């Protein structure tokens, strides 16, 4: 059988038969991959622990008729290890895996942007970044905004999402696509604070130095806006999102 090698993050697993598993991964070169891992549920398996969610691996796959088969596997980063003792980071990571699984829908097509974004976000959750630790909820909000943007759902934060009027704008509507002017705002639109607008822009652009002095109240305000935006634009709400500890 022909084979190929790729780097990937394990998103989820399903039991198959008595000792196998179906592994869903987001890879660097081939986007989403669903592959069978033979015998990984046996205690004698050599790489069963390497194929758990959050694992960043370098694997060799054999091309199969319906599903590919994991032939070899090496761990690059065990992201799940530091998250196991940090509940806020773990729940944020679960949302990231589910989001990547939901947004990358076509198997076998490259999704390099989503792959790099997921690896970078998991690294920031589990290990300190060059500019110090960041709140897990803030890392998650940035990931969600940027991941949705890569998928074509970028929120408008400077111009009216409905008529294109330029700012400054005061209203935010998930169903309208982000910022809206007073003439276009639908019923139930939110009116974020000035600090919340600034934080959303920083999280979307990755401008982390400007987030250092943000208050917990502003973080909570933005988290609510981001959650509403995500749940509106995905066909079904993220199951793991209500479990996130944003304290």
Automatic annotation (TrEMBL):
It comes from the Bacteria. HAMAP family: RecO. GO terms for cellular component: bacterial nucleoid. This is DNA repair protein RecO. The keyword DNA damage applies. PANTHER family: DNA REPAIR PROTEIN RECO. Residues 1-79 form the DNA replication/recombination mediator RecO N-terminal domain. Keywords: DNA damage, DNA recombination, DNA repair. Belongs to the RecO family. GO terms for biological process: DNA recombination; double-strand break repair. Involved in DNA repair and RecF pathway recombination.
